[in-house]
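Think of the structure tokens as a kind of shorthand, similar to the way a musician reads notation: each symbol stands for something richer, in this case the local conformation of the backbone. In the example below we present two proteins back to back. Begin with the first one, reading the sequence and then the tokens, and try to describe in your own words what changes along the chain.
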Amino acid sequence: MDFGGSERHMSARRLICLCALLLVALCLPVQAAAAANTGTVRVLLVDALGTPLKGTVTLSTGATKAADANGVAEFTNLPYGMYSATSAVTGMTGPAGVGTINAASQVATITVILHRSYTSQAPPPAPGSPAAPSAPPPAWPSAPTAPAPQTPPGHQGAGGKLTGQICTGQAASVTVTGGGVSQHVSTPDGHFSVQDLPAGTYSITASIDGKVVKAYTVRIGSGSPMDAHVTLCPDRTPKLPPTGSGGLPYALSGGGLLAVGAWLARRKGR
């Protein structure tokens, strides 16, 4: 029996086993070191009030994952380094969040905050921030300005008011004419007033019992409105009225009374 050949065969097998064990021993530290240099990125997706959101989270490596009901999406077995995460939810937007995996922190938590998109107004302030000043109320359109009164043709400047009286205090009719204006006033006590007269010259005629007793001319000045006041006294020139038989006058009323007095004085002096 050849015991030498058998011993050589067993020695070869032992050598092969020892080499295999040596290779395994060399690979294990490498794998352990590789596993020790990886970590996890945990992304928390919330709104401005901290409420969890469901949406798709995109890592800076290009990997994507859907956030669960708690707003969390995890990316595992990532090499040490800095990562950013973004998300887009319908009607909402927000900046990217950033986190770092290293030997001191193998789990990086990145919070992505999304705000509602506003087109015509600013987004609501974050909790605890001071309220933005309110916008001033819209200005209402001002009422249209009434046009300035026009001066009638032929007159310059503003007009005024004409007042007057009949010195005898009798009821009278007064007519004011001039510059395209003609106004008729009846007064029971001799006082009259005519307003809104443009600047110009006016003729005033007073009538008592249908007879013209006085005519007068007055001017309303130009520039700022001016008032004018006149006193009209009936003409008292003695006139002899027609006489009848015996030389006596037919009428003894009104201005004829003075004429009768003068007639009687002449009769007495004969």
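Once you have a description of the first chain, move to the second and do the same.
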Amino acid sequence: MRKILLVVAVLSLASFAPALRGQVRAPLFEENFTGDNSVNGQTAPTQSQLAARGWKDGITSVGTGYKFLLDPTLKKQVMYAHWTNASSERTEPDGTASGWKKFFPASRDVTLYAVVKFHNVANSPNGAHWHRFFNWPGAGDFSPGNADGQIDLDVSGRDKYSTHYDPNTHQTFPDPQSWRGFLLYSGGSLSYSNPGKNDTYTDDIWYELVWYVKAQTSGTSPTTASNGAMRVYLRPIGTTAWANVFDGNNFAVSKRTDPISMWMIGPYMDRWTSDIRHYYSRAVVWSGDAYTDGTLAAFLGNAPTPDPTPTPVNCVVSDWSAWSAWAAITSTTESRTRTRTVVTQPANGGAACPALSETETRAIQTPTPTPTPVNCVQSAWSITSQNSATVTISRTVTTTPKNGGKACGVSRIAIPIPPLGIGG
């Protein structure tokens, strides 16, 4: 059941004027909720001025459902939605009003910078306000109710959900009985919050808020990994330390996979408490991740930006060593091993290290013996024939050479007989 509705109020003090404006990527839109749309305007905008700036829906009730006042802290005009006598779920504020919406060129991921203040929201008995990005290309000028494509950043009072999913583990966790914090709602089956990140705001304090969301390209189940992401950072205005109040990666942020093309301000609210208010002063939306690419820091005049998500570092290992000598491990098998070492340890969710050793096993190889050389052996010489001219001697082979042994010598020799001399 739909329970959370959030409106994010937006503001900027003079001290946050963009000192480095020339270095800032142009936003998709910027709204200061003043007559001339200036950062420090003293005059409230008219219906026609808001319409001329591209706001749709609810403009005809700008003077009743939405109100304006000169804020004593900010010393500028701010806008707020106000309830005094709501009696049912999704009741509109005083007068008639619906959600304001602003269309912009479609982007796969977007960043909102806003400053927001809540009044009687933190202690409402299940109350919440909301604002919404839409990745529903067919959204018309009139504010739809809950619909596929809504990506709601909700701020809850003591709210109670029937089901919460952890966006990082894709598992449900016990229903909080006193949840007061920031959540993502995209229909009854896509309700996310971070365990341990509740109780993250206080009523009647101006906050700066950064909301980054990336629409997934596939998958719409809360229980399986996808490639959507959402991060929300919050800090009291005038301070420098950002608190991470929602952090989710690799999950489905919406029931659609289209790029994001619209931002919408509520005024809806559930389970009211008397005199609930939600104030706005400024809203700036960029395509892409404006807080990690330096755009937000430059926009705020080099004010500190939320810590970017650390870059994953993959494990790096050395080349394999040479194989060790084969060693017997049983009477019939032997093995050898090679190893490698870690050069760079993985960090920030980078790829884990592969195996650092590898072993091969085989049957024991029995070496073939090298044969012994056998030298040739021959008998003694003997006279085998004789005539008046020659004497022939010979010998026989008694042992034949093999395996590379010494070869045999000649086996027969004819020796000439010199002639005898005549005379004395």
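Compare your description with these statements about the second chain. Residues 377-416 form one domain.
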